[in-house]
Design a protein that fits this description.
The chain has one domain. 44% of the residues are buried. Helix 6 packs across helix 7 and helix 6 runs antiparallel to helix 17. A two-stranded antiparallel ribbon has the order 1-2. It is built from 18 helices and two strands. By secondary structure, it is mainly α. A hairpin with a 4-residue loop joins strand 1 and strand 2. The longest helix has 30 residues.
């Protein structure tokens, strides 16, 4: 399918992305001090604008709120619970802002399900995500190249253009693995000459992944490699996937990052101390939590680096159950309908999209242990949500056929 124009839903998704790498901290009198500050301050309102349009659209079209059962429904009610609890936050405006922007992509995708041709709209949003990943990869590639082709040196932070700030190596590695996943699947499952173009994405993505030495992304590479082998079965492509992944894991993770020390490779780099501090705060409000952005507000701007502890500090045990349930629900769909096996027999453009969605869900599921994946508004959420909704909608659409096989 070729999308000639961007639909209104696609524009809403671009608005949501427009609020990335900024936030309420840029909304102040200082935003009028320079064009860059004004640009950053105005962008912070874009996901709120998307949310407002979605609410009006849902009221006009009588679109109901998500139910609890789908994975995206659980994420919605996790976000809604955190938003309500944010009224109890020591910094209400900051917490409420992050609660609102968290709900914006969920409601955009809720509207998609009720639109005509929802599968086409899901494809459009997915392709927009892919385009953004390629663009950011190309922007960061020159800076990554500064650290040499074969050396083990790396940067902790990478500079984004237009005053967007810095991105940690883990964040850059995440984008790199996304590029590796989507281009790798296209190379394996595209029969036309177009696969040559995807090689031009795959090789830089693999290089950036190796040079960032991001352990969470390298773990995601291992998980995605296992999943693709399970999906493909015993085919000749395994002779490529296995050795390439193993070499990158060994060279980037073990030799460069850990300096051939297994203890260094498996170390938590201080995460356990932040987890302990967060759990102590959670004990003071175990059922409700403290609202969105609590790690920054209560833990001296520390980042928790664990999705489940992060969810619990946002909205307590209630939020943890809903958030964990979302991951459980999507994996239940994958195994219930035996998608790892049945996706091989699918024909057409849906096949690579479904495979990419499964691999991305596998990556972000493993990443959720050591990063706060999807527990707050961020890049991980915007890549994970469309993959989850695509799996949910496609299995719902083909439920009868899947049950007959």
């Amino acid at each position: 399918m070729r999308l000639r124009t961007i639909s209104f839903v696609g524009l809403l998704w671009i608005l949501v992305w427009g609020g990335m790498f900024t936030g309420e901290y840029n909304i102040s009198a200082r935003m009028f001090s320079s064009p860059t500050a004004l640009f950053q301050g105005l962008r912070a309102f874009l996901p709120i604008l998307a949310l407002y349009v979605c609410i009006l659209w849902m009221l006009a079209a009588r679109i109901t709120l998500p139910s609890f059962s789908p994975p995206q429904g659980m994420l919605f009610y996790y976000g809604l619970a955190g938003l309500i609890i944010s009224f109890l936050s020591p910094e209400k405006m900051s917490a409420l802002y992050w609660g609102l922007v968290y709900l914006s992509p969920i409601l955009v995708l809720r509207i998609v399900i009720f639109k005509e041709d929802p599968l086409d709209r899901l494809k459009e949003i997915t392709y927009l995500n892919y385009g953004i990943a390629v663009l950011i990869g190309l922007i960061l590639l020159p800076e990554v190249l500064q650290y040499g082709l074969f050396g083990g040196s790396r940067a902790q932070f990478y500079e984004l253009p237009f005053g967007l700030g810095e991105m940690r190596a883990n964040g850059v590695g995440r984008f790199a693995l996304i590029l590796v996943i989507i281009s790798g699947v296209r190379i394996l499952f595209t029969m036309s000459r177009k696969r040559i173009y995807w090689i031009a994405v795959f090789l830089p993505g693999l290089y950036i992944l190796a040079k960032t030495q991001s352990r969470t992304s390298l773990l995601g590479l291992a998980v995605a490699s296992v999943l693709i082998v399970l999906i493909m079965g015993t085919r000749w492509q395994f002779m490529i996937v296995g050795p390439v992944s193993t070499y990158v894991l060994w060279m980037s993770g073990y030799r460069w990052r850990a300096h051939q020390s297994m203890e260094s490779l498996l170390g938590l780099t201080g995460r356990e101390f932040t987890w302990q501090q967060a759990l102590e705060m959670i004990q003071q409000s175990p059922f409700l939590g403290w609202g969105f952005h609590s790690d920054r507000i209560l833990l001296e701007s520390q980042h928790i680096h664990n999705s489940y502890i992060h969810a619990m500090i946002h909205s307590g045990i209630i939020g943890l159950i809903l958030f964990t349930g979302a991951f459980f629900a999507v994996w239940r769909l994958i195994f219930k309908y035996d998608l790892l096996r049945k996706v091989r027999g699918i024909e057409g453009s849906e096949k690579p999209l479904l495979i990419e969605s499964i691999l991305l869900i596998g990556f972000f599921s493993s990443r959720s242990i050591f990063e706060s994946t999807a527990a707050f508004f961020g890049v991980d959420l915007l890549f994970l949500l469309p993959a989850v909704v695509l799996i949910y909608y496609w299995t719902t659409l083909h439920e009868s056929a899947l049950n007959e096989e």
